[in-house]
Amino acid sequence: MKENCVNVALPKGRLAEDTIELFLKQGITNEGVVDFNSRRLTFYDEKNNIKFMMVRNMDVSTYVEHGAADIGVVGKDILLESGSDVYEYLDLGFGFCRLCVAGIRNSDLSYRHDMVVATKYPMLTKNFFASKGVFVETIKLYGSIELSPIVGLSDFIVDLVSTGQTLKKNGLIEVETILESTARLIGNKSMAKVKYDRIKEIIETVESV
Predict the structure, then answer these.
(1) All structural domains of the chain with their residue ranges
(2) Residue range 84-132, pLDDT digits in tens
(3) Tell me: the pLDDT tens digits for 125-165?
(4) Where do the ATP phosphoribosyltransferase catalytic domain residues begin and end (predicted)?
(5) Which residue in 96, 110, 111, 132 has the most C-beta neighbors within 10 A?
(6) Is residue 158 within 8 Å of 178, Cβ to Cβ?
(7) What is the strand order of the sheet 97-104 is part of?
(8) Do the domains spanning 6-95+182-207 and 97-180 agree at the CATH topology level?
(9) Which architecture, in CATH terms, is 97-180?
(10) Residue 23: in which H helix or E strand, if any?
């Protein structure tokens, strides 16, 4: 691997695919470098001296903050929840979704101090309700969050919504939107100085879209 290789952390799934599609379109990487059907976690583009790392969505900003990656792509929701100390360079405009409060349809959907909220986003959830003067207990779940109010584990959930069909199929309804999220290009604050010219070139190339 050549000196000053730019390391890029990508979240497994659709955001990674959209990012690579954008990078291919702008000539930042070459066709065939990243194989999404492979179990490999790293892919090196020798011609452009850029390495892609496939990581969990929640971990992208951690890899970037601690210098394992120079730049990364992550949803704004994850970026805010993590509180990572990184540069936020660009809004990439794809990966749109909403972080919403949802509850059981035809139930009491008013907020109260003793309620329990299930979510993957405890910090954003607590901050949101605190801004309304409501202090809640949060339960952190990693999947099937829609189930929790149905079985009585929580009063509400806070989760990402795109079409709302999953909520509807499970008898839930959106109550309020906390924030709208899209994919962001982020960078490490110290490594960006070492590889400033390369990273600046990538940012300007993406921004030109």
Answers:
(1) 6-95+182-207, 97-180
(2) 999 999 999 999 999 999 999 999 999 998 899 999 999 999 999 999 9
(3) 999 999 999 999 999 998 899 999 999 999 999 999 888 88
(4) 56-207
(5) 111
(6) yes
(7) 137-140, 116-119, 156-161, 97-104, 172-181
(8) yes
(9) 3-Layer(aba) Sandwich (3.40)
(10) helix 14-25
